[in-house]
Amino acid sequence: METATAFDASVVVPEEERALPSRRETYAELVRRLSHQSVVKHFDAYADIDWDGDEFRIDPTDPRWDLGPEETLGATAWYRAQPPEIRARIGVHLVASFMKTGLQFESVLKRGLLDFAFDLPNGAPEFRYVYHEIIEEAQHSLMFQEFVNRTGFDIPGLGGLDRFLSRTVIRFARIFPELFFFFVLGGEDPIDHVQRTALRSGRDIHPLLRRIMQIHVTEEARHLCFARHYLRQKVPHLGSVRRLALSVMTPVVLAIMAQLMMQPSRQIIRQYRIPAAVIDEAYRLNPRHREKTLAALAKVRDLCGELGLLTPVSTPVWQVLGIWNASSGA
Ligand SMILES: [Fe+2]
Ligand SMILES: [Fe+2]
Fold it and tell me: Is 51 buried (19+), middle (13-18) or exposed (0-12) by CB count in 10 A?
């Protein structure tokens, strides 16, 4: 088990961007390699994080939680005008809230993966890989919930509609796995992008959050790699009706996921009385936020282009949802 505590620069390089052992690696070989990596490089939420260590203690007024002017909300005049303790409190509340959303997303993901594995034939390499991923996601959820608990915030998590939709997503894992794996990318890619950007930024990040992000991006690299290669393997063999459905439903899923993963919850807006005009300024009408969202979705959008899913029928859906990047050339 990996127990390094110092920052490991290799975590900012996704698994699939590293040199492959063979250029002619088949899909099955890749899946087996990812399974092996889960054995030699994996983490335990409690053995690998010194939760009670002095430097990991969470103080909600710690200035390291301040969002900073490079953050979407942190750049607003309203936020900068708050007292330092409130700025820090909003910062750590946001982190805890994203972690709660993240662990609920992982709950849907795990249940979907279990269903996906249920019907796999004996000998399928995906079975072992998917079980490794479920185990890793369970460790992530343990560390996210432990973080939430230690902040002292009572985070409600997903609302009723999102909970209802999540049950539909789980069903897709069995009846339409290609759409399910786009849902997986829609949840994992934006959060992975945000965490890698933060780790690279050189900012003074709270050591506990840094440790959690390092562990997470290391293991997520495998999950993203599997989802992308699964889609590359399966989408070209879809019939025309399923392909059309996939091309139109994918941007809807991505837009919902990006919003859940990148904007403050209603609880936070209410509790700190953030004016609607500030939310508009920071998110809805902010070209910088739009750019960040597009950047977070860039890899999955490029994959859609590669798989021929950006068509004259589906492109308007991307545009209407505000996640189309005309400059991507896809
Ligand atoms: Fe995860
Ligand atoms: Fe994951």
Answer: middle
Ligand 1 ion: residues within 5 Å (CB): 137, 140
Tokens of 172: 């897709």
- 72 close to 292: Cβ distance less than 8 angstroms: yes
pTM (whole model) above 0.85: yes
Exposed (0-12), middle (13-18) or buried (19+): which is 106, by Cβ within 10 Å?
buried
Q: What span, in angstroms and rounded, lies between the C-alpha atoms of 191 and 198?
A: 11
> What DSSP designation does 272 have?
T
Span from the CA of 75 to the centroid of ligand 1 (angstroms)? 28
125-151 and 207-234 helices cross at what angle (nearest 10)?
150
Token output for 170: 């789980």
Which of 197, 33, 187 has the alpha carbon at shortest distance from 98? 187
> Is 65 within 8 Å of 122 (Cβ atoms)?
no
Distance from Cα 220 to the centre of ligand 1, integer Å: 6
Count how many residues are written for the chain: 330
* Both tokens assigned to 13: 């390089």
pLDDT in tens, 49-78: 999 999 999 999 999 999 988 889 999 999
Q: Tokens 């335990």 map to which residue?
A: 44
Spatial contact of 16 and 189, defined as CB atoms under 8 Å apart: no
Rounded CA separation 45/1 (Å): 12
With a CB cutoff of 8 Å and minimum separation 6, the contacts of 142 are 45, 46
